[in-house]
Amino acid sequence: MPGAVYVDLDTELSAPPGVGGRHPLPDPEQLQAVLRRAGVRKDSQVVAYDAGDGSVAARVWWLLRWAGHSEVAVLDGGFAAWEAAGLPVTAEEPAPLTGEAAGDVVVRPGQMPVLDAEEAAALAREGVLLDARAAARYRGETEPVDPKAGHIPGALNAPMTGHVGADGRWLGAAELAERFAGLGASGDVAVGAYCGSGVTASSVVMALEVAGITSAEKPAALYAGSWSNWCALDREVATGG
C-alpha cells in the first residue's frame, strides 16, 4: 500500500530463536527502535496488514498492545482485500525515518498478559487454553516444524483458520462468540492461547476480544513461547482429540 512501512517478523518483531521459542518476544529497546524508524508516534493510529490470513498482522497488533500502544488495528482481509477493492498499490518502499522525522513512541513492555510454560500448563487445567494450530498438529498426527507432535495436556483445539471466512475476512463478533463459547471460553473463566511459536495465537487473543469474551481491560493471555518453547523444555505431551 502506498506509504506502508515493512517490518520483518523474524528479525524485527522477534528475538533470535532459542529455548524461548522460534519467535520469542523482541527486546523492548529493539522494538522501540523498529517502531520509531517506521514513524510510530505516541498518538499514532497504527494499522497492520499482511498478505496472508492476518496472523502476522495480529502479532503486530498484540506487540503494540503489549508495548503500551493502544491505538492499533488490523486491516480485515489484508492486502488481498485491498487489491480486490481496486485500491492503489506501489513497489516503492519508504526510507526508514531518522532524527526529528522518526517516531517518538515509548515501549512499555508488559501491558498484555504473557504466560510461561508452567502458567500455560496451569491454565489448561484450571481455565481454557486454546491451541491455534491445525487440528492434525494438535492431535499429534503430524508435526512439520517442531521436534515433538501433540499438544499441551488439557488444551483445546481452536485453529486460527476457524475465525476467518472463505473470503479471507474475519467472522463477525456474534459468530466468533458462538465458536469460542463452544470451547468453554467465556467472560467467567480465565482464557489464553498458544500456537507453534506465538504468532498465530496472537490472532486468537484478538478474536476473543472482537467476540466480546475478553476486553482491552481484561485481555486473554498469550503463551509467547508456545509449542516451540514447550518442546525445548521437554514437557509432557498429549495426543489425540
Automatic annotation (TrEMBL):
Stored Gene3D superfamilies: Rhodanese-like domain (3.40.250.10)
Start and end residues of each Rhodanese domain: 2-91, 123-239
Keywords, in A-Z order: Repeat, Transferase
Keyword Membrane recorded: no
Protein name as catalogued: Thiosulfate/3-mercaptopyruvate sulfurtransferase
Domain of life: Bacteria
InterPro entries: Rhodanese-like_dom, Rhodanese-like_dom_sf, TST/MPST-like
Ranges in a coiled coil: none
